Every structure is written in structure tokens, then in C-alpha cells.
Amino acid sequence: MGRKILFVTTDQQRYDTLGCNGGTLARTPVIDALAAAGHRYERAHPQSVVCMPSRSTMITGQYPSTHGVWMNGVALPADAPSVASELHDAGYRTALIGKPHFEPFLDPFARFPENRFARDGMVGVHRGFEHFEAATHGAQGQLHYARWLAANHPEAIGMFYPVLDGALEVNSLGGGDTGAPQVHDNAINREWYHTDWVADRTISWLDSLNATDDWFCWMSFPDPHHPWDPPASEIGRIDWRDVPLPAGYHEDAATREAVLDAKPRHWRAWYDGRLVSNYEAPYSWVPATLTADQVREINARNAVECELIDEALGRVMAAIAARGWDDDVDVVFTTDHGELQGDFGLMFKGPYHVDGLMRLPLIWRPAPSTASAPSTVTKPVGIVDLAPTFCTIAGLPVPPWMEGKPLPTDDADAQTRGFERVLTEWDSELFGVGVHLRTITRDGFVCTTYQPGYAHDGTEGELYDLTLDPLQEVNRWDDPSLASLRSDLIADLWDHQPPMHAPLRRVEAPV
Amino acid sequence: MTLGSVRHEIRINRPAADVWALAGDPSRLHDWFPGVVSCTVDGNQRVIVLGSGMSMPEEILVNDSIQRRFQYRITTPIFRYHRGMIDVIDLGDQTCLVVYSTEADPRTMALTIAGGCAGALDELKRQMEQPAQSTENGAS
To answer: Disulfide-capable partner of A489 in A29, A133, A353, A447 (CB 3.0 to 4.6 Å)?
Structure first.
């Protein structure tokens, strides 16, 4: 009998939403306890700041350039390499419960297995997962959660916020007390909400296993990704009026706009509503209209969703303990990318490689039986390192097609094994608006170079000193005193950046 | 109004007339378009049923066997505008180029529908280029 693996992911969660990372809004005692007993990573970055590429990196252990899912709407081939397949082939029982998103959701033809399984009464096998039960951010669509809700609580379907509007664009409809976009009072019973459903289905699957089984369970919560529509019964936990504004949000518009103006032009163009470069933000919403109170209310709802996740995880941990497995279970907690959540006067996500989107919560609590010493790891690591870590936990060699390395257990380990840099890519093309970024984070700096596209000629860039400028407000790309450093970082970036998958995979849908 | 336009094309190693015989037959769409479960044609009206269970009414606008052009529009209300067009272009060397164009308002529907169209082109090529199958009576 080997070590079992509970892989917990959320969607679009910031680093600073956890108590163990300094967050003060959401109470996250379960995750905080895992962090105290394990390894807490202070500089974990995704290889893409949107869902499908990042999740494809999680399962393949490859950069987006290699697995080829270069933007949302591009499907990861069903036969792509999968860490779940590696583990399953080695005798592990495997499950994915919650949000997968390796394939497009907008799929009226039901061409993709993720969207067909529930219709066909199936729960796998897919991508190495013998059990595959899918959910997303609401009750619409073809996934298992939507079908479960329709069959058991049809009155709740209309209670969720409509993520997409009538034109299938990300909805800009406002709600709550402040009219904030994607905020909504959801009358659903807490027990029927997808966070608790994911935990319930996870517990059910774990209960179906034999005591001696080794298992890998990817429990994938759709929250705290917008819409911010947690069960209304829970929103009283945090009064948005008491929520402090984030340090990255300047109430004074002139200050806010001066910061944006020092960045490549698509930042300010989006803020002003002149350019929506990507599908992931509401098409008809203008960030400049965002008010301080809206930021407060969104962050309050987001924090409630984080608390519900923490409590759901607590229930799963209790179920694991009840099975007598606690000493043999590794728990890895992270997310696919962050959320701007008011930084720079912006919300949602897009081609903006700053901490709000790139700095992720990452906790690895090794199985207590390993007696691994708790640590805080400050060296840069990536989501690309997760799949190799799972192989190592299972006692398997890391397959040659994986591009990451097993996570370091402390800074000395990271130093020894060369965790010096982490790379993040952005490519998108939406009706002629192409944006291409390549970013390296190394030696306390984050450096982004732009390739030619709709709004850029290829000379633009961003360079931030993460120590002196933790909010990334002072773009030092053109600072002569850092010219040499900038050249070194870019050279290092291109030395380690895998080439783009050829031919370019096709965009199948907006998302 | 948000108009989106997406075009996919594929070269098929079969004469244009052979490809047109299938692609230009509005009643056989479900034979080569993955995710289209069935289609029913009545005059210039066609109703297709998708894998999700969604039923989609269409109006056939052009079915020109000389130009080898098929054009239609989806008439379900979610589309403020739609034009779908299939062109089978003879390249003169016993091969052809098939172009499947989608224009739609809202623009997101252009991306969503065109993804299916691209998959259909792949399937059309696969069917057209697969070796001739022997039939039960031995003919091929």
C-alpha cells in the first residue's frame, strides 16, 4: 500500500485569499492547518492565467506551448499525456470530481466527451480517470452537476447568476447592493450548491474504495471564480461595508490611471473600454466604471466562497480520517490562476502578468507517515511541477514528456535542484485581436516581453521589482539602470521557453 | 451588433464532383458533420438536431451544383444573423479545396458553430480519402 493523493484545486483564486498567506478576509482554518503541517509555496505561478491552458498543464506536466492548448476554447486532445493515466496504469484508483475544462464548455454539438458523459449516463473513463463527474460555475450546460440539479432540485436552476448573457458573452449584469458585475443573490440551499456537491461526490467516491486501494482524487471546485453568487444564506458572514480595499486598488482615479499608463497600451485601453482583447472578461463592461464599493462587495462574496471551499475540504478530510487513511494521504491544494479583484481598478483576468493573476496559493501537505518537515518555500515553482510531484509521491519515475520537476520540499532543496525561474505564457486571438506575452519570474523580478500583435509592435514590455514594488505599479522596462538585467532575463526566458506547438491547435469555441 | 466571421478550409484528395455529391446534399449533413444527429429537409427548410439535443431550424439559401456552393442560415432566435457557406473548389488536379465559412451575430456563435464546422471538414476528408470499401457482393 502506497501514498494516496488528494489533489484539490479551485478556480481563479488569489494567493492572498488564504489565512496562511496573510489573508484576513476569509477564514480558511482547514487549508491553514494543512499549510502549517506541510510545505507552503510563496512564489507559485501558473504557466497560463486562464483555465484551459492551465488545467492542461496540471494534467500533462507540460507548458502550454508543448501541450498546445494555447488559449481557452482550444481542446486538449483526448489522448494527450495524462498524469492520471500514469497513476492508473500503476494501480491507482483515479477520479476527477468537479471542474475539468480540458475541453470547451460551449459545445452544442456535444463533440467533446466532457459534455457527453452526463448525457450518456457515464462517469468515465476519460484521460486516465476511471471516475469523472463534472461541474462548472452554475446550473446550465451538460455536465453532471447541472443534470443532477435538474433531476433533483429543478427549482434551483434559475437561482444562479447567468454566467453568459443572451449573446453568449460573459455577462456584465450587476447585482448585490452595489450593482457589481457578476454579483448575485443566489437563493439556493447551501447543500445543493456546487461546492458542497463536489465534496459530497468526492466523499461518495472515496467511500466506494477498498481500504487497501491507493488512489488519486482530483477534487476541483468551480469557485471562487465568478459569478460571485454563493448561497444567500451565507453572505451574511462578511459585511462588504467592512471590507478594506485591496492595496492594489487606488480610489483616486488619476493615480490609478497613471499606473495603467506606464504599462503597455492594452491595459489602459481595456480600462477605458476601448479594447476587449479576450473572452474571459465581460464584453460590455468598462472597468473604469468599477466603484470602490463594488470592489468591496465582490471581495466579500469571493471570501464567502473561499470559506465554503475550506469547509467542504474539511468534510472531505474528516471522511478520509474516518477511513483510517489520514496518515497516508498527501494533500496538494492550489488553483489554476488568480483574479485581479480590484488591482489597478480591474477585475477578472486577461493578458496581464502580475501577481493578482500569477501568484497562486500552493500547499503540499505530505502524508504524515513521511514525517516531512514543514517549510515555507520562497523559490519560484510552477503548476507544471505538479504532475511530476504526483508521480514522485506514488513512487513512479517522472515520464520524459513531463517538463516540470517534483516540487521542492524547502528552499535548500529548491536551490540544489535548480528552481531559479518560472515561466508564464499568454496567447490569444479573438476576431483579429491577437495578444502574445512571455514572462519570466526570477531573482525577485518579473519580466514580460510582448510579441507583435493587434495592440503591440513587439518592443513593449514590463519589468517589476517584486521586493521594492510588490504591487507591480512601477514599470521599469525602460529604466536604463536595469537594462542589463532586462537583457539577461529575456535571454534566460528564451533559453527555457519551449517552442510553440506546431501546427497551432484549432480554436473550437470561445471557452 | 457583434458580427463574427470564421472560415475553415481543407484540401481533399478527391475530385470536386465526388466531394460535392456528399457535401452538397442537404439531407446528408449528419453523415459527415460530427455532433449533428439527424437532419430533415422540406423544400428550402432544414431542421438539424444536435448532439446536445438542441433542434436548430435552417433556411437553405443557395444550393448551386454548378458553382458547388451551399449557403444556408440558422433561423433560431438566438442568432440575430447567420450565414453558413460551403464551397467545394476544383483545384484541377483531381483534388479540391473545401471552404466552410460562418458569419454570425452574436459573434460568439460564429466561434462555437465554426468549431463544429472545422470538425466536419476533418470528417469529410476522412470519409472521402479512405480506401474504397468492398461491398457484400464484391464490388468496390
So the answer is: A447
Shortest alpha-carbon distance between residue B121 and chain A (Å): 13
Any idea of the CA torsion for A249, A254, A258, A261, to the nearest 10 degrees?
A: 100
Sheet strands (E) in A309-444: 329-335, 360-365, 375-377, 381-382, 421-430, 433-442
Handedness of CA A149, A169, B36, B82 (dihedral sign): positive
pLDDT tens digits, one per residue of B84-103: 999 999 999 999 999 999 99
Query: What residues pair up with A74 in beta bridges, in sequence order?
Result: A507
Rounded-to-integer distance, Cα B124 and Cα B23, Å: 8
Residue among A69, A74, A103, A109 with most chain B CBs within 10 A, to mutate: A109
Query: A296-321, pLDDT tens digit by residue?
Result: 999 999 999 999 999 999 999 999 99
Report pLDDT digits (tens) over A176-191. 999 999 999 999 999 9
- Give the ipTM of the model, two decimals please: 0.92
Q: Are A414 and A43 in contact (CB under 8 A)?
A: no
Question: For residues A127 and A216, is the Cβ–Cβ distance under 8 A?
Answer: no
DSSP characters over B67-102: TTEEEEEE-STT-SEEEEEEEEEE-SSS-EEEEEEE
Per CB-CB distance under 8 Å, the chain A contacts of B34 are: 109, 111
3-state percent helix, strand, coil for chain B, nearest multiple of 5: 25, 40, 30
Prediction pTM value: 0.96
Three-state DSSP state, A309: helix
